[in-house]
Write a structure and sequence with these properties.
The protein has 388 residues and is mostly helical. 70% of the residues lie in helices and 0% in strands. Helix 5 runs antiparallel to helix 6, helix 7 runs parallel beside helix 9 and helix 8 packs antiparallel against helix 9.
């Protein structure tokens, strides 16, 4: 029996897409000439149908038009049944099954991969499947139940397709679910920022654990997005501006007022970005570093909103100027590696096997002489490094 929770796309080809990006990087860095670059690509082939971003956008729009037109035509035949929610539920279920069949055909038989067509089929299929649950329950269940249903649907879709928009939708739905559940209780409203921060921290830990047990690149893009979103939601949960204005919204206050634990959120607002920056530098985590820089800019906006008379335009200008000067200084300072940091690109240690393939397949073979000494290289041999 076919396993519908397995990966929909050819995992080896997805892996080779990431490998080819590294080969391309080597080519632009002059480590490979054009003939070696072309030869290397034949060693790690990708069988997916390829098109540029503009073609993908066009195919996505065209596919949606076709899908909507087909749905509109079908509704003409079932117009009398649409008055019943149960009949509507059956139609949604049947349409989602049909779309899944087409999606499966495009991905596994026609070798489409994020081509626009399969994206359109996936999003419409998920929408109609969720519409089935809404129709069958006649929108009588609590909102958090529908969030839970959507989480299950999107999670299964993520496991099979690793789609980026599905990934974003899944994480947002998880946050909305915990927000809704917490906001139902008075104590939950009070502790809501801490709930969001805890959920974000647990999610970040779970993603890191997922990376350790999933050694392929099939989910790499999804994992990267989830990490960034977890970091952002952790910061948002502790940001003073968000908490104060959110408190006013939840309690139907005309104007925001001082909140409980205000000093703690003052600390979170500036402390979390600094922690991200320091941690990102220490662990060489580019995603955490970038999120730290973005959030520190929003922290400055938060403080000037309540404590400074500086306009937003001037605040952003000063922050931007400061970041540009800091970046220029860091680039100049780190041209020579210091404190395990460098401005030059880091080595792709995870692709050492790929390096071996490239050398064996496309590099010219040379005869070694009796006086050859080993152990001094950074690439292969007895060298300890992974630099090419």
């Amino acid at each position: 029996m076919k396993n519908y929770l397995t990966k929909a796309y050819n995992e080896e080809w997805v892996e080779n897409i990431h490998h080819q990006s590294i080969i391309k990087k080597w080519f632009f860095q002059k480590y490979l000439d054009s003939s070696q670059y072309e030869a290397a690509k034949t060693v790690i082939p990708v069988g997916f149908k390829h098109s540029n971003i503009f073609v993908k956008i066009g195919l996505f729009i065209f596919a949606n038009i076709v899908i909507m037109s087909a749905a509109g035509l079908a509704s003409l035949f079932f117009a009398a049944l649409l008055e019943s929610t149960y009949a509507l539920a059956i139609i949604c279920l049947g349409y989602s099954v049909l779309l899944y069949y087409l999606l499966d055909s495009f991905t596994q038989k026609n070798n489409y991969y994020r081509s626009g067509v399969d994206n359109a089929l996936l999003y419409t299929m998920l929408s109609t499947l969720f519409g089935f649950f809404i129709a069958i329950t006649d929108v009588k269940l609590p909102f958090w139940v529908y969030c839970l249903i959507l989480i299950i649907i999107l999670f299964l879709a993520l496991i099979r397709y690793a789609d980026l928009l599905v990934t974003i939708g899944l994480y947002i739905t998880v946050i909305v679910f915990w927000f809704t559940v917490s906001a139902k209780f008075e104590i939950g409203k009070l502790l809501l920022p801490f709930v969001i921060m805890i959920v974000s921290a647990v999610s970040y830990w779970a993603i890191k654990h997922w990376r350790k047990i999933e050694d392929s690149n099939y989910y790499t893009d999804a994992q990267n997005i989830l990490e960034v979103m977890a970091l952002l939601s952790f910061y948002i949960g502790g940001n003073y501006y968000v908490v104060r204005e959110g408190n006013a919204m939840l309690n139907d206050l005309g104007e925001s007022i001082q909140i409980a634990f205000a000093p703690l959120f003052y600390f979170f607002t500036i402390g979390i970005p600094i922690f991200f920056i320091v941690r990102g530098l220490m662990k060489h985590d580019r995603k955490m570093l970038i999120v730290g820089l973005i959030t520190i800019a929003f922290s400055i906006y938060t403080y000037q909103e309540y404590f400074f008379s500086l306009s937003v335009e001037w605040a952003l200008t000063l922050v931007g100027t400061l970041l540009i000067l800091l970046s220029a200084w860091a680039i100049q300072y780190l041209k020579t590696p210091k404190h395990t940091l460098t401005y030059t690109p880091d080595s792709e240690n995870k692709f050492q096997n790929l390096e071996a393939i490239a050398v064996n397949q496309v590099m010219p073979t040379t005869n070694t002489t009796e006086g050859t000494k080993f152990g001094g290289g950074d690439f292969g041999g007895a060298g300890s490094g992974g630099d090419y």
